[in-house]
Amino acid sequence: MAKRRKEKDEESDDKPFKVPKFDEEEFIKKEKRNIRSTFIAFLFGGLMALVCFGFWALMGSGSGTRWMLVLLVAVANATFLKYIFTRLNIDISDFTKKNWFTNIMIYFFTWLLIMILLVNPPIYDDENPSVELVVMPEVQELGSPIEFFAKITDNAGVTKSDIVFSIDGSIIDPGDYNFTNDVFTYTFSDGTALKTYTYNLTVTDSSGRKTVRSNTFEYSNDSIFIPEPLDVTIAPGPRVGSATSIKFKIQDSVDRVYYTITDANGAVGEPINVTQKEGDFYVTYPKYEGWAKNQNVTMNVYAEQIHYFPVVASNQLCYLSPSDICNNTIVDSQTYYFQVADETGVSSEEPPLAELPQPSCIQVPGFETAILIVALAAVVLIFKYKKKDENK
Question: What is the pTM of this model?
């Protein structure tokens, strides 16, 4: 029995290998069909991009879901490919999953590419310039400047000539303000009267779309003041001990309040931070280091404002340029007087530390990562279906 099987195997090994017959006509027919279907999928993707662009423009910039809606329209209409192929007499009877996947991807990425081109300048622009304006401070003391900072961005781009800035109706000469790295800066130091001023910042992009920011700022002698009952504006001032609370009222919101003490010899001490608050008041005590025992001293008060424009993080790191950091100081024009008691508790404690604001980083969505994942998945699927076809 084994001998017969061996003889049979030897006979089968002796048979020559026959190359499968190659049907050249059928091969050319399928390749032409595949080229036609690919071209039609490309044209259909472009047509749907035009249709979706029409919907996009009709919905307007006020609709926050229009990207989602046009994406749903594009995905849903991919099902029409089968109907279109049938109507154009394309034989899809032996279409494999690979054929369908290839045509759908060509349709979708054609739609996506053309759609992105259509909804961005210079073809289309329906977004007003983005203007984040900061006035520091809104209430200032006479003799100190007011700083204007504005982060101005636009998808079509903005230049200095697109900016018009005015105070009390008078247009500021463009040479008097700066516009660098999308940040507008201007210093107003012409406040000579205790009054309220109005300002207007108008930004117009290349498409004629405008954004206007307007409000008021004020010069006042009460931007910072010490309320009664302490009469501290006339020398030599009230007598204070280590536990005497000294309260400051500040009209504007600030990030740091500090003061300096000048002793009887005219020596100015290090800044002393004020961080404790009681309602609307900032509170400090002569117990902090810097106060001079048994002396007549003077106090000068300052309030600092700090603002950071949001920074786009790069490689998980947040890089700040000088134009991203905005700050200004309210300098109290009034000098305050005190008679400091000769007590053990005076100037015995370290001043509190100031808790300053920190910059905020914006993490941009990792579109490149998503595209890489989609591309890898597409490659895997193509090779998978190709291998299946070869096995068949």
Answer: 0.69
